[in-house]
Every structure is written in structure tokens, then in C-alpha cells.
Design goal:
Elements (H helix, E strand, L loop, with lengths): L1 H16 L7 H23 L4 H16 L1 H4 L1 H4 L8 H17 L5 H19 L4 H9 L7
Helix pairs in contact: 2-3
Length: 146
């Protein structure tokens, strides 16, 4: 499955580089069929596993792959949808690090303040603005337009 999805991502990237914004329906159907075949192969292989616990975990994964197939292949239908969610994961990483370092937030209010500040910083970074300068302007009572 990993190699199929990686191949699809490379194919999509090559199309985007050429200025093509859509994959032909026939190709999508062929890729979708291959996705289903891999899942069916997974179910067959899963039956051969002796360990009940490993078999159950793999069964759950296969079920999720089958159930959310449309979500997993969304990047093929809509080129605006990223292949991965690395950006969202990066945005959450600082929050998780804060929890690991301090163990917890002392209050719900503190968590809200931290979340708001992180949200502002991340938004300014994504917009390509210098957040140090803008935050400094806030403290100097200089109006800030985002």
C-alpha cells in the first residue's frame, strides 16, 4: 500500500509540474481498483497470521483503509488537498512538547492563552510575516493589521 500511495503522490507531483490540475477518470478508477486489490491481499495474508492480537490489529487497520478509502485517495481527485498532513502535525508538535516538558497545564485559562498565542504565531508564519515585529508592535500600542 505504501508503495502505491508513494507512486500516486509522485505521479500527481509530475502532473502539477506540467501544469495539469486533474487526473483522468480512467486512471483514478484503475488506481482505486489497485487500492482495493491490495486491501483484499491484506485480508488474505491476515488469515495466515497465527497470533490473535496481531491479526486483530491488522484487521482493524485493513477495515479502516477500506472504510476511509475515499479520504485516503482524496489528493487524487482534488489537487488542492495535500498528500500528507505534515503541516497540521507540525502545528500541533509545539503544543505536545509543552505538555511533555511541563507535564500539564496549570489551568484551563493557561491552556487557552497558550493555544491563542501559538495560533497567532503559526498564522503569522504561514502568511510570511515577521511575528516578532508584529507582537512587538502590539506591546508598543501600534495597530496591527493581519
Amino acid at each position: 500500500m505504501r508503495s502505491l500511495l508513494s507512486e500516486l503522490n509522485k505521479y500527481r507531483k509530475s502532473l502539477k509540474e506540467k501544469g495539469i490540475e486533474k487526473i483522468k477518470k480512467e486512471k483514478i478508477e484503475r488506481y482505486s481498483k489497485r487500492y482495493d486489490e491490495i486491501i483484499e491481499e491484506g485480508y488474505k495474508e491476515n488469515k495466515k497470521i497465527k497470533s490473535k492480537y496481531i491479526r486483530q490489529d491488522e484487521q482493524k487497520l485493513l477495515n479502516r483503509l477500506k472504510k476511509y478509502k475515499e479520504n485516503h485517495l482524496k489528493f487524487l481527485y482534488d489537487f488542492n488537498v495535500p498528500f500528507d498532513n505534515n503541516l497540521a502535525e507540525r502545528d500541533l508538535r509545539n503544543f505536545k512538547i509543552k505538555l511533555k516538558v511541563s507535564g500539564r497545564f496549570n489551568s484551563m485559562e493557561g491552556m487557552k492563552v497558550y493555544s491563542n498565542i501559538r495560533s497567532i504565531i503559526v498564522t503569522l508564519k504561514k502568511q510570511g510575516k515577521n511575528f516578532y515585529e508584529l507582537i512587538n508592535n502590539i506591546y508598543k500600542n501600534i495597530p496591527v493589521s493581519i
